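Aim 2, interim progress. The first record below pairs a target sequence with its C-alpha cells.
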Amino acid sequence: MIAFVRGTVAGLTLSSAVLEVGGVGLELNCTPGTLAQLRTGAEATLPTSMIVREESLTLFGFIDEDEKSVFEMLLTASGVGPKLAQAMLAVHSPDELRRAVTTEDVKALTTVPGIGQKGAQRIILELKDRIGAPVGSASARTAPAAAAEPWRDQVHAGLVGLGWSAKEAEKAVEAVAPEAGSAPSPDVAALLRAALRTLSKA
C-alpha cells in the first residue's frame, strides 16, 4: 500500500491533483478543500489511501492523517464507497463528521449529496461507537487562498466537481460571498461547506 506521496504538484483538476514523483505523475483524487491548499509547481506531501478494484487502482489524497483516518473509517460503513466518503469530507471537516455521528445529527449528514435520512441513520448506527470524539484537529483547511477573488473559482470548481451544475454553483458562490467579506485570504474550505449547505436547502 502507498501510505503517502511526496512530490511536485504537476497539475490540478476539479477533483484531483497530479504529483510528480521520480519522473512519474501520480493522480490523487482529493476533496476541494485539499485541492485549495495545493499550488502547481510547489512541493506537497499528501497521506494517501489506495482503493483496489478489479479494473482499477485509485489513489485518494488527503491534507493530513486525520482526514485520511476518517475517510477510511467511513468506508467501513455499509453503503459508503470512496466517492461518498470523499463527498462527506468535502462538506464537513473530520471533527464535524465525528460530532455529527456521535451526537446522532442526522440533519448534518443529510447535507451531503447522496445521503438520505435512512443512510445517515445507518452510518450513525454503525460508526457511533468507533469514530471517536472530536479531537480539535486544526488541519490545513484553514489555509488561505492566494488572493481575495480566486476563492470564487475554487469554490465553483469544487461544487461542479461534486456534481452540481455550473448555474447552481454560481448561485451558491454568490450566496456565500458576504461570508468572504473583504478579507485578503478567505477560508476556501469553509466557504465551500457553506455553499454546499446553501445548495442542500434549495
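The second target in this work package is listed in the same format:
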Amino acid sequence: MQLIGLTGGIASGKSTIAKRLAELGAVHIDADQLSREVVEPGTPGLEAIAERFGNDVIAEDGSLDRAALGAVIFADRAAREDLNAIVHPAVRELGQKRIAAARDADADAIIVYDVPLLVESRNPYSFDRIVVASASRETRLGRLIDARGMDPDEAARRIDAQATEDERLAIADVVIDTDGTLEHTLAQAYTLWQSLTTERRA
C-alpha cells in the first residue's frame, strides 16, 4: 500500500488532480466528504456543533446549515478553531477506517487521501508522499469569483482563512502547478501516477 496525501488551498485544482488519479486506478478518500458524514443528523459531531454555535446553524430539516456556519467561522478565527476541534478528530477516525478498508481490499493499493486542511489539521498519518496542488492567489481568486460566483471579499476571506501557500509547499514532496491549462495539470497528475506505479512494481 502507498498512502499519498493530497492537499491544496481552496480553488487550487486539487479536486481535478484527485479525480484524474482515481480514473487511473487510485483509491480516492475525500476528507471533505468525510467531514460531511461526521456531521450528518444524529451524529455526535452535529450535536457538538449545535451546542457550540447554536441552532442558527441547523437547518429546518435538522441538517447542518453550511452557509450559516461558514458565515460565522470564516469571520472568526476562534470559532473556526472550535469547529476544527469538533470535526477534525472525527474525520481522522473515519479516515483511518477507510484507509484500513482499502488496504484490506488490496494490499498494493495506491490510496490518495485528499485533505484540504492537511497543514492546519496536523494530520497524524504517515504519508509515503505529500502532493500539493499549487496556484497563485490571483488564479484562485479568479476561480472563486468567476467559476463559483463568489463575492470578491468573501473569496479573499476564504483564502486567507487557510494555511499560506508557503506553509503548504514546506511539506510538499511533489508540487503540481495548476496555474496553467487543465491539460497541463492532468499531464502532471499522469506523470505522478506513472512514478507511483513504478514504485509499486519495484
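The two ends are 13 Å apart (CA to CA). This observation will shape the mutagenesis plan for the next reporting period.
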